[in-house]
Amino acid sequence: MGKKKKDMDKVAALDNEYTKEQYAEFQKQQKQLIFRRRRLAVVFLVAFVIFIVSGIQLMKDYQQLSAFKTQQAEAVAESAEADKKLNRLEQDVALLRDDDYVAKLARSRYYVSKEGEQIYNIPELGGTTSSSNEQKSSDSQSQSHSSEKQSGE
């Protein structure tokens, strides 16, 4: 370090117009270089801020899209369930328009009988409860809780 300073002492600057011009030109170029570097740094900083803001917004949008996809899947599943329920209810309505089915349902659930009929309640085998039997009878129409004896018909 001392050697470098010693070497600098050996160099003398010329004090003429040309060297002053060159030194002024060098100073001007250095200022322009610093200005360009700072401008470039500002441009990079602005670009970085824009990139970060865009990235954050993109992440929020992606999370919102995921939430919407989840909601869509739930809505589609709910819609499918509602369609199944609608189909079952339409089948029930169609069955309830049939007088024979309504009569059979009234006999099995509410023990309605025609005049002269006698109803026998026979418990089913297999330990099923009466409430589950009612569901089975309404679903399949084939099972009934009562045995009917028709006299004269």
UniProtKB/TrEMBL annotation:
What keywords does the record list, in alphabetical order? Coiled coil, Membrane, Transmembrane, Transmembrane helix
Write down the superkingdom of origin.
Answer: Bacteria
Bilayer-crossing regions:
40-59
Q: Where is the composition biased (Low complexity)?
A: 130-145
Sequence segments annotated as region (Disordered): 122-153
InterPro entries, alphabetized: DivIC, FtsL/DivIC
State the Pfam families in the record: DivIC
Annotated signal peptide: none
Coiled-coil stretches noted in the UniProt entry, renumbered to this chain: 72-99
Write out the GO biological process terms. Answer: cell division
**Name of this protein:** Septum formation initiator protein
